[in-house]
Amino acid sequence: MTQQQLEKYLWGAATYLRGHIDAGDYKQYIFPLLFFKRISDVWDEEYEQAVKESSGDLDYASFAENHRFQITEGAHWNDVRQVTRNVGQALQKAMRAIEKANQDQLYGIFGDANWGNKDRLSDETLVNLVEHFSRHKLDLKHVPQDELGNAYEYLIKQFADDSGHTAAEFYTNRTVVRLMTLIADPQPGETVYDPTCGSGGLLLNAALQLKTAGKEYRTLKLYGQEINLITSSIARMNMFLHGIEDFAIVRGNTLSNPGFLNDDELQTFNIILANPPYSIKAWDQKAWANDPWGRNLWGTPPQGTADYAFQQHIHKCLDVQNGRCVVLWPHGILFRDAEMEMRKKMIAADVVDCVIGLGPNLFYNSPMESCLLICRTNKPKARKGKILFINAVDEIRNEKSISFLDEKHIQKIYKAYKSYSSDGDFCKVVAVDEVMKNDGNLAIALYISKSIIEKDKENLETLFQEWLDSSSELKQSIKRLIANLKA
Fold first, then answer.
1. 454 vs 411, residue with greater confidence
2. Do residues 96 and 196 both lie within one domain?
3. pTM to 2 decimal places
């Protein structure tokens, strides 16, 4: 299959679920089935190779050493394919057996979907799904890792498009992901962490960026935490299907129960990439005031907005010598009064490296504008005491209700960040002292050329006048219509 044919084939599985379950739930069934089929087909491929190497020794071909993952007797895809009654139970039994046989790598990876609930998925529906996936071999010979990895990412995006408001829980706009990883500049051997990793796109892209550049990506160590069980499972599958081995993704609440510790202290990382949930209200604010891991560096955020709890967690987890983070936020974190004192302490510590204003609709299913907050624990000498502001609000391509960064947009923003110099209305280097005089307000419009504000003002005046003119025309049209009706 070509890449396009593979993607169409895999997405076709969703047609069997339409009308039976909500679109937002497709992923908890499709992804486990895809992963189950893949590891079964690869096991068969490894078995055949071992038979050839041993001149037909079938016992040798079954040895664990010849297989990446173990599939116990009765738990293979072909075993489930023979079942026509209670198919859901057979699937669940096989998946649990595989998890148990590969506890260190696969425990819990198939999620917690209730496969045995026939009110949701009948035997007929599941048989159709199994037969759909059985049409093609998904081993390495027929579907190489890169191709399947790309198809998996395609599925993630399709599910995001289909699932409405839940999309943001597991999907970050991949064009923004590319910009974030370019700026973070991961290097071989470094550690990369995402405290709210979703489907793992940010972590994965860090490795793929090195791979594309021809650098040793397999020494990059990836760490992620995700509160949602099925989403954390999707992230783990994402890594395996892309051939990434050195990673750890745990499930849990990052704010109340951080998953990566060293001797009762938070583990630190070279790079942190994140798109945290914004302005969540259901979090334990009282516990934060006496946080056992010392993450209340700058203070306690308000109950209705946990954004600076995540930002402080991120900063606390950065390596002291070479830590850098790139975090995707709504613009509110730059100027809200409720967080002013915390923001001032962050700025006074001279850890804010750059603020990049991005355009609207880059968050999934949200029209709000976004920004990148880039921080470093040890800024280069030339950048100390300074903050770079980049106004990239217009550097987007709109497509229906979603926006994207094209490569030309990404390169323009990235070059501005690397040069770290002022350039007209696009970017400006500002002294930390000047920002502190504005009570730590990081709103980009305060520092980029006033001509932008004037331009917006002119646009507003023009739009207002056009609105007045159209209102007048509408009134005249209505008068003419009434007169005609009377006549």
1. 411
2. no
3. 0.86
